[in-house]
Design brief:
Chain A has 301 residues and is mainly alpha-helical. Helices cover 74% and strands 2% of the residues of chain A. In chain A, strand 1 and strand 2 form a beta hairpin. The longest helix of chain B has 18 residues. The chains are: A mainly alpha (301), B alpha+beta (384).
């Protein structure tokens, strides 16, 4: 290969490296999003697919763009949707917080464990992934139901007189989400805590910080990237979570995931379901992008 | 090279020579074991107020373990440590009036220079205004004014070292521990920093204890040096004492270069002794008394820079303190030349001569038969 050709191929590789992630995002994120957005802006129709095209020829052979903003208007007006959104956000936020409170000590303990035991502990954290997600959620039904394992235990110990209603409650939903998403919190927290140089804690102690003060002023701020990553990894999927609330939650408290499912499969209102999905996405992406932008700005200063 | 540093200071008081002087830091029987290994083995040591004391030793000599016991990160298995009359071992690290400058500096990466320095003062719960004043004073002392809002990542190695120093000094500790204080700096910066550290130590009057594996660093900076080996103190003394009067072969060889021969004490001669080496067929005369009686086996140490080297033809008559051999190697260092002379028994002796003239052709060259001689005072007799 001649020298100019080598330079040209080098440039090509560099270009490919730059283009590939954008192409990926375009193909698998932006394009599907645009398709969903298009469906959200169309009118429902009977047929396959169950919506009218946005671009169509009128009888006078004029290409017209018909946009239906009614779905988004309904989303804003109908308190049912708004409440489902807020409920989902609350459930996700509380779940992320619970995961953080449980996950942080776990990650801390693993990061401080002797080197040879660390790998085993990490494998144990990931171990539940080897069983199907659905099976694990189903297993909780067996534990929580009225004739279930937990009630049986409580009754036999004489702690309660009659079985408690555990299943189909908001508590069961929290339990399910925290149980399923905990590894996503522990892993990034572990990564940032393991990176922390223990000498920094010695320095803090040397300068007069008691252990808890050293934790607050050194460990906690330095593990913030891990906290942010963990909270996002739990919060974002939990907002749209469908399976856990469906299997463990009560019928009264509808979450966005379930509303979406109902619109899509029961009402066959694809445009409405798409509008819900688009709104949910924007609701999540805009604050996160804003947050990242601010964080980047602060880091630059 | 050795002795060229900031050692030249006004006649400092030497409290360790005064039997009535009260030691500031007192270690008695301090021992620390890690499983089978005894890292520090029963150390007794007195350090006086205002000293810049160096713990010198190779890796695994126990010097760092000893320093960490003073800071409180390790607990001795037995022994006592008192500082200014207080039992240091009764206090956790965060209550000790002792601060440590870590080898890696251990600056908090998420805090600015000013926040790093203020950290220890804020833990004391001092009023805001006083913290600000003392941080400003510390920044001035280490010449970092103007960088207070930088993060450690945006500083050079030398600047980080000063932040670490300021962060300790601002606490006004009774004892400042320095773990390889110059280890992370490049060579050009090291000498300037040596002077600066000694200056700051003298200005603040703080007692410094530093750990180093670099003999030059210890020699040039310290008021006294403790040479450590295998968890014990091989020798404690001023740099000049340790260099000129080493207590053992180990110390003689660890500090600088030493030629070491083995011999038998033949007789006392004047105030000194005459030692014979049958292997070398040579006599060594010292003007100091032998540590062993007549007939005992001793070691003879002679520093290369105290020896003379001449062509055999030019050398005078045969006397003690003379070894004949042939030049095997010549190493040119610029400021001095090191000759490696092979002796008849196969061993070598190293002789260094300053390059006083600008001769590019040395008068002595490879394979020349030479005589190596030295004065009586250069002969150091060692029992072990």
């Amino acid at each position: 290969m001649s020298a100019p050709a080598a330079v040209a191929s080098g440039r090509l590789v560099r270009l490919a490296v730059l283009v590939l992630p954008y192409a990926w995002l375009f193909l698998f994120f932006l394009l599907p999003f645009l398709i969903v957005a298009k469906i959200a802006l169309s009118e429902p129709a009977l047929g396959i697919p169950p919506y009218a095209p946005v671009l169509r020829w009128t009888e006078e052979k004029v290409l017209t763009l018909v946009l239906n903003l009614g779905n988004f208007a309904l989303l804003a007006e109908d308190r049912f949707y708004l409440e489902a959104y807020l409920r989902s956000l609350r459930v996700a936020a509380v779940s992320a917080l619970l995961c953080l409170l449980i996950g942080y000590p776990m990650a801390y303990a693993i990061a401080r464990a002797p080197e040879r035991r660390r790998h085993l502990l990490l494998v144990l954290v990931i171990l539940p992934f080897w069983t199907s997600f659905l099976l694990r959620v189903m297993a909780w039904i067996g534990i929580l139901q009225e004739q279930g394992v937990l009630n049986g235990l409580l009754l036999s110990l004489g702690l309660v007189r009659e079985p408690l209603r555990l299943l189909y409650t908001e508590g069961a939903v929290y339990l399910g989400i925290v149980y399923c998403y905990l590894p996503f919190m522990v892993l990034p927290l572990y990564a940032s805590l393991a990176k922390l140089d223990p000498v920094l804690l010695e320095a803090a102690a040397d300068l007069g910080a008691r252990p808890f003060r050293a934790f607050l002023t050194v460990t906690l701020p330095l593990s913030f990237p891990g906290i942010a990553a963990g909270v996002m990894l739990v919060f974002i999927p939990a907002v749209g979570e469908f399976v856990i609330p469906e299997l463990l939650g009560g019928p009264s408290a509808q979450l966005v995931g379930r509303v979406l499912w109902v619109e899509f499969f029961q009402n066959r209102d694809w445009p409405m379901a798409s509008a819900l999905a688009v709104a949910l996405l924007l609701l999540l992406v805009i604050p996160i992008a804003l947050f990242q932008h601010l964080a980047a700005q602060r880091a630059r200063r | 090279m050795v002795g060229a540093g900031p050692e030249a200071r006004p006649a400092a008081p030497e409290p360790w020579r005064d039997p009535d002087a009260e030691p500031y830091l007192r270690l008695r029987g301090v021992t620390r074991r890690f499983g089978e290994v005894t890292a520090v083995a029963g150390i007794d040591l007195d350090i006086y107020r205002g000293e810049l004391f160096a713990l010198l030793g190779g890796s695994g000599s126990g010097k760092t373990t000893l320093l960490r016991m003073l800071a409180g990160f390790e607990r001795p298995d037995s022994g006592t440590i008192t500082l200014d009359g207080e039992d240091l071992l009764a206090m956790p690290p965060y209550e000790r009036p002792v601060n440590m400058m870590f080898q890696s500096y251990a600056l908090f990466p998420h805090m600015t220079v000013a926040e790093n320095i203020a950290y220890g003062l804020r833990r004391e719960g001092l009023p805001r205004a006083e913290i600000a004043a003392r941080v400003a004073e510390a920044l001035e002392l280490v010449q970092l004014v103007g960088l207070e809002r930088r993060r450690p990542a945006a500083l050079s190695g030398g600047q980080r070292q000063r932040v670490a120093l300021a962060r300790c000094l601002v606490k006004r500790p009774k004892l400042l521990l320095l773990d390889e204080p110059l280890g992370a700096l490049d060579k050009s910066l090291r000498e300037a920093t040596q002077f600066e550290l000694v200056n700051i130590q003298e200005r603040t009057g703080t007692t410094f204890i530093m750990v180093t594996h670099d003999q030059e660093e210890a020699m040039t900076m310290a008021s006294r040096i403790a040479v450590m080996a295998e968890g014990r103190l091989a020798q404690v003394g001023t740099p000049a004492e340790v260099y000129e009067y080493p207590a053992s072969r180990f110390v003689a060889a660890f500090l600088g270069t030493a030629n070491i021969f083995e011999g038998i004490v033949r007789r006392a001669e004047g105030p000194g002794a005459l030692v014979e080496s049958t292997a070398l067929d040579a006599l060594f005369r010292s003007d100091a008394d032998s540590p062993k009686p007549v007939g005992g086996r001793v070691f003879v140490a002679v520093r290369p820079e105290k020896m003379r080297i001449e062509k055999v033809a030019e050398a005078g008559g045969n006397g003690p303190n003379r070894l004949d051999g042939t030049v095997r190697d010549i190493a040119y260092y610029g400021d001095f030349v090191m000759y490696v002379v092979a002796l008849p028994d196969g061993s070598v002796v190293r002789v260094s001569r300053p390059t006083e003239t600008r001769l590019t052709e040395l008068p002595i060259t490879w394979n020349d038969p030479v005589a190596v001689t030295w004065p009586d005072f250069a002969t150091v007799l060692l029992a072990q």
